[in-house]
Amino acid sequence: MSSSVVTRFAPSPTGYLHIGGARTALFNWLYARRFGGRMLLRIEDTDRERSTQGAIDAILDGMRWLGLDWDGDVIYQYARADRHREAAESLLASGHAYRCYATPEELTAMREAARAEGRPLRYDGRWRDRDPSEAPAGVKPVIRLRAPLDGETVVEDGVQGRVVWQNKDLDDLVLLRSDGNPTYMLAVVVDDHDMGVTQVIRGDDHLTNAARQRQIFDALGWEAPAMAHIPLIHGADGAKLSKRHGALGVDAYRDLGYLPAALRNYLVRLGWSHGDQEVFSTDEMVAAFDLKSIGRSPARFDFAKLENLNGLYIRGAADADLVAAIDAVLPALGPERGIAHPMSPDLRDKLTAAMPGLKERGKTLVDLLDSAYYLTAARPLALDEKARGLLGPEARERLAAILPALEALPDWNAATTEGAVRAFAESASVKLGQIAQPLRAALTGRATSPPVFDVMAVLGRDECLGRLRDQIGG
Ligand code: GLU
């Protein structure tokens, strides 16, 4: 038997790829890469009513965007139902399972009795040892696991440590429903086995399932994979993660202007640590990732930390890569800003030229795009309130006064425009800011922007002079 590591990410396609799922996928991916193994992707689509193609697409897109590639073809759980049924039949044949003919009424009565006595519902095993010849006519049976009655079921969990269940507390779970459909619990076990999974890494909301699954593995005589159940993510206030806290789909993070590398870096630190290191390249995280450094208490989602990390990645990214990343989010962000996707070659050039100034101040691609407003704005510029405040009558007069000096410049670049503006400020005995701020307002429509002489260089002579004349004339 090969000893190479196989992990899997097994999302249920009932919604988008949310942030907790993305972290689970990342941990599985890192673990597989760390040990030279493979990460498989299994779509758990057995719930036919809640599984949708839209959700499957969102999960695959989200993983691709995050750079979490899986090995081999996507495995669809529902397509393997025959194989799951076959496993249930084999358990019947080996005596590890039995047909149960308890009627819905009987099960309801069992549930009510349990409730009245204040104990959890457990199937009482009434068909466990009954002769099948006693089967009532017309009742379609379910197949149940003949679970051990005493002793313990133990999971040595890579994160939670040794977790022990008393078998007397675990009842005979259903493997195959009366309509012949396998249960989720059976499907997971058969799939994990057939896929050769050696290490399960998933949220600790599945910890109790692990006991059930362990019993099925044992009954089938299969070796169970190692298990690691990671604490769920909580909001900054310690409460369960909700939308308000950031429980959004990965696609929402993309449209908020986060870079995949920054989100990966943020997610890896959500529950896992490596000394006090906060910033990890992908290679660094692969080299350092392990299960024993996953904490046992829930990690807290912190938007401010994600933003800061994203700002760091933006400042470190190549200008052309940022322009490409902006272009990729234009389908979502462009329409309200009047920018088409893909962006025009002219805008691409201007954005690339402006990027050194833009990226120093933005934490997200949305910030960059908003600070780049001046590149795409049409004349005459719509000024925001602060910019209007900077362009009072006196300021407009100053702009009118400096215009001839700018018009006369033989070369137009950041250095020459700066020289002209400084010379003018000196001769007029005004501070540089008193002329630079109105210039900025007239050229960008905003009170803050990248350095104004960079703006002038990027916009070019004609556009700058045009925008200044628009304000002087008005
Ligand atoms: N399909 C389950 C989920 O989305 C995961 C099951 C597993 O990892 O075993 O929560």
Automatic annotation (TrEMBL):
<dbReference type="InterPro" id="IPR020751">
    <property type="entry name" value="aa-tRNA-synth_I_codon-bd_sub2"/>
</dbReference>
<feature type="short sequence motif" description="'HIGH' region">
    <location>
        <begin position="11"/>
        <end position="21"/>
    </location>
</feature>
<keyword id="KW-0648">Protein biosynthesis</keyword>
<dbReference type="InterPro" id="IPR020058">
    <property type="entry name" value="Glu/Gln-tRNA-synth_Ib_cat-dom"/>
</dbReference>
<comment type="similarity">
    <text>Belongs to the class-I aminoacyl-tRNA synthetase family. Glutamate--tRNA ligase type 1 subfamily.</text>
</comment>
<dbReference type="GO" id="GO:0004818">
    <property type="term" value="F:glutamate-tRNA ligase activity"/>
</dbReference>
<dbReference type="GO" id="GO:0005524">
    <property type="term" value="F:ATP binding"/>
</dbReference>
<dbReference type="InterPro" id="IPR004527">
    <property type="entry name" value="Glu-tRNA-ligase_bac/mito"/>
</dbReference>
<dbReference type="GO" id="GO:0006424">
    <property type="term" value="P:glutamyl-tRNA aminoacylation"/>
</dbReference>
<feature type="domain" description="Aminoacyl-tRNA synthetase class I anticodon-binding">
    <location>
        <begin position="344"/>
        <end position="472"/>
    </location>
</feature>
<dbReference type="InterPro" id="IPR045462">
    <property type="entry name" value="aa-tRNA-synth_I_cd-bd"/>
</dbReference>
<dbReference type="InterPro" id="IPR014729">
    <property type="entry name" value="Rossmann-like_a/b/a_fold"/>
</dbReference>
<feature type="domain" description="Glutamyl/glutaminyl-tRNA synthetase class Ib catalytic">
    <location>
        <begin position="5"/>
        <end position="307"/>
    </location>
</feature>
<dbReference type="GO" id="GO:0005829">
    <property type="term" value="C:cytosol"/>
</dbReference>
<keyword id="KW-0963">Cytoplasm</keyword>
<dbReference type="InterPro" id="IPR049940">
    <property type="entry name" value="GluQ/Sye"/>
</dbReference>
<dbReference type="GO" id="GO:0000049">
    <property type="term" value="F:tRNA binding"/>
</dbReference>
<dbReference type="InterPro" id="IPR033910">
    <property type="entry name" value="GluRS_core"/>
</dbReference>
<dbReference type="InterPro" id="IPR000924">
    <property type="entry name" value="Glu/Gln-tRNA-synth"/>
</dbReference>
<comment type="function">
    <text>Catalyzes the attachment of glutamate to tRNA(Glu) in a two-step reaction: glutamate is first activated by ATP to form Glu-AMP and then transferred to the acceptor end of tRNA(Glu).</text>
</comment>
<feature type="short sequence motif" description="'KMSKS' region">
    <location>
        <begin position="240"/>
        <end position="244"/>
    </location>
</feature>
<keyword id="KW-0067">ATP-binding</keyword>
<dbReference type="GO" id="GO:0008270">
    <property type="term" value="F:zinc ion binding"/>
</dbReference>
<dbReference type="Pfam" id="PF00749">
    <property type="entry name" value="tRNA-synt_1c"/>
</dbReference>
<feature type="binding site">
    <location>
        <position position="243"/>
    </location>
    <ligand>
        <name>ATP</name>
    </ligand>
</feature>
<dbReference type="InterPro" id="IPR008925">
    <property type="entry name" value="aa_tRNA-synth_I_cd-bd_sf"/>
</dbReference>
<keyword id="KW-0030">Aminoacyl-tRNA synthetase</keyword>
<protein>
    <recommendedName>
        <fullName>Glutamate--tRNA ligase</fullName>
        <ecNumber>6.1.1.17</ecNumber>
    </recommendedName>
</protein>
<dbReference type="Pfam" id="PF19269">
    <property type="entry name" value="Anticodon_2"/>
</dbReference>
<comment type="subunit">
    <text>Monomer.</text>
</comment>
<keyword id="KW-0436">Ligase</keyword>
<dbReference type="InterPro" id="IPR001412">
    <property type="entry name" value="aa-tRNA-synth_I_CS"/>
</dbReference>
<keyword id="KW-0547">Nucleotide-binding</keyword>
